[in-house]
Design brief:
This protein has 147 residues and is α/β, with parallel strands linked by helices. 37% of the residues lie in helices and 22% in strands. Strands 1-4-3-2-5-6 form a six-stranded mixed β-sheet. The radius of gyration is 15 Å and the shape is globular. 30% of the residues are buried. The mean pLDDT is 89.
Length: 147
Amino acid sequence: MGSPSIRPLIAYDAAAHRSQLAKMLGELIEANVTGEERRRDFDRLLTRVGVHVTDLGESVTMSFQGGHLFIQGGLAPDRALTIHGDSETVLMLGNVEIGFARTPNLLTGAGRELVWRMVQGRLRVEGVSGNLTALTQLTRIFSVHGQ
């Protein structure tokens, strides 16, 4: 009887292996889910999120599978959420502080800047309606602040 195979926390398809965006997002998430609360969010998150970086013309799809993340190159169909923004704005998602009741604090400098970029059209999130819980969990997983 062989030993059971250990499933990696994050896996990539061939296109994502060549993508700097996929690697950056994967490394950010892997580093961030070491905390207990964020790991709980990661373990509970069951959704598919697309990220399109407009100035690079690069896209990835992240399939959160309850404790496992599969990243593939391009925008796969059936995404619950899709984030569109320039590279600087997408990177700013990691700077949002988590505040009261573990919700993203949009009143801090980084939070206000992201809201302003949404107003300007530099950041757009499709699928928010009906997926607010998943978006909140995703923001907590992305954030480099706090646990």
